[in-house]
Amino acid sequence: MKIALWQTQPIHDADLALGHLAEVCSRAAAEGAAIVVTPEMALGGYNIGPDAIRGLAGRADDLTDGVARLARQHGVAIAAGMAFAGADKPRNGVVVMDRNGREVSRYHKTHLFGSVDACQFAPGKALSVPFEMGGWKIGLAICYDIEFPELARALALEGAELILVPTANMMPFDTVATRMVPTRAQENGVFVAYANYVGTEEPFTYCGLSCICGPDGNDLARADTGRVELIFAELDRAALPRHGHIDDRRSDLYGPPNKSLPK
Fold first, then answer.
1. Among the options 25, 89, 143, 161, which is catalytic?
2. Known catalytic membership, residue 109
3. Catalytic hit among 23, 25, 31, 40
């Protein structure tokens, strides 16, 4: 399966963002990609304040329909970062449409990053449930989520072979892309696709470095630090390990979460 990651500057007009996404999907389809992954909150911007986020969340149905139309028009699946309404605050989410414009998964970010997330969003209440697409089992995470090894491990234990990660990662945290993301791939024997922003949303300067890492932790594709790009990689099922860390875990020693270690 061929995958495309859209590394872009934040676009604060959601309709304009959909227009740019249409161009990206057209190019991705021409290159034979099966799925396009956007950055976090690609439809309207990330660090834009609670009022603007609420406005985007109020348009979630309309924007989701727009993503579905693009998927049908171009014949590619899309994992798009956007805001969804919540009972208290909006949710920072990602929706996945298959190539026929059918919604196959929706996930809300569970690990909120600092005050920028806390003032704009409420945390999701559940991890992504891996779903089937094109013969692959796929899980979802959003930005800060992937920095928690437990989350990636949980997805891998549920059978995920590929984790899609819409991201808005800023300096000085570029080592997340260069060290942590490859580690998540290797320690779980999965592919990880990490789609980031470039440019600025004051006070943040985004670090780019969008990447697609293989189950051995090596880059299959990596973007620059400061350029709008569409990067591609071909994922080969033969690269998935037949035996790895998952098989050798000593869960009998770790105990349940938060259990005190023996003295």
1. 143
2. yes
3. 40
**Rounded to whole angstroms, how far apart are CA atoms 109 and 126?**
9
CA neighbours closer than 13 Å in the CB half-sphere of residue 28:
34
Q: Which of 57, 68, 61, 5 is nearest to 197 (CA)?
A: 5
- Average pLDDT, consecutive stretches of 10 residues, N- to C-terminus, the chain (263 residues): 98 98 98 98 98 98 98 98 96 98 98 97 97 97 98 97 98 98 98 98 97 98 97 97 91 69 44
Which SS3 state, helix, strand or coil, does residue 186 take? helix
- pTM exceeding 0.85: yes
CA-based nearest residue to 22, from 76, 91, 85, 90? 76
Task: Determine the topology of domain 2-237 in CATH.
Answer: Nitrilase/N-carbamoyl-D-aminoacid amidohydrolase (3.60.110)
Of 25, 89, 109, 211, the catalytic one is 109
The yes-or-no answer on residue 143 being catalytic is: yes
**CB neighbours (10 Å) of residue 96?**
24
